[in-house]
Amino acid sequence: MERISVQDHRSVYERLCKDYLNLKLLTQNACHGPERLERCKQSVRQDIHSCRKLSRITQFEQLVALMEQRNLLSLLKPDLIERFVLALDTTEVGSALTSYRDALRSHYEPVRRFYLEDLRHRDRRTLLEKEVERIKLQEATEPPAVTPTAATNAKRDAYLRQRDSIYSLLQLEIGKCWKVFGRFLNVPAGELDEIEERNRQDLKTRIYETLERAEMQYDDAALDQYVGVLLKALESSRRKDLKRKIETMLQR
């Protein structure tokens, strides 16, 4: 049997990357109008487990980003697109999904290997480093006299009350350093580039989408951790003035 070279496998992987992107674009094009978007959102509501996040989604690409962030959808896991096929009643996307699945099934192991390698390159921080950071943030933000559960709920509730005001403040104040700020929020560089490309003439929208993308990394129950990351990002961006303002807002 003729052996397939590593280079050939790499070519297959790169082709599937393009096919996966095209599959998402086909689905996005089929999801035109708020009614169709709502059908798509409802089709994955049980998987997302967050009515609040779904209610804030106004574009199909935001829904895809949330699903990818929660590892519900990826190059290796395209199955949930079938929900969209049914919700949108689109044979074109259905045919593309079938072809994509066949190609993925035929080369799954080498494609999986290249995919995981790329993931490791995209995020160089180890799981241990992330866990250490999470523990430090928790220790720094929880008052010792309050139980962890109470502190978490209080911080989350305070953030939800002030969220719109915080977003508005940062949209006005972050300015041209938004991309550096986004990196400190752990938004991947590639996604920051995409945000910039979509909103070249609208700085406020770039900042808003960066904040939204960063927040999507956290479940509702973990928003207190996001608050800690947000404050730390402001400090790292040399905007302690904004950090102090937000801390004051959260105490109201």
TrEMBL record:
<dbReference type="InterPro" id="IPR011029">
    <property type="entry name" value="DEATH-like_dom_sf"/>
</dbReference>
<dbReference type="GO" id="GO:0007165">
    <property type="term" value="P:signal transduction"/>
</dbReference>
<dbReference type="Pfam" id="PF00531">
    <property type="entry name" value="Death"/>
</dbReference>
<protein>
    <submittedName>
        <fullName>FADD</fullName>
    </submittedName>
</protein>
<dbReference type="InterPro" id="IPR000488">
    <property type="entry name" value="Death_dom"/>
</dbReference>
<feature type="domain" description="Death">
    <location>
        <begin position="163"/>
        <end position="250"/>
    </location>
</feature>
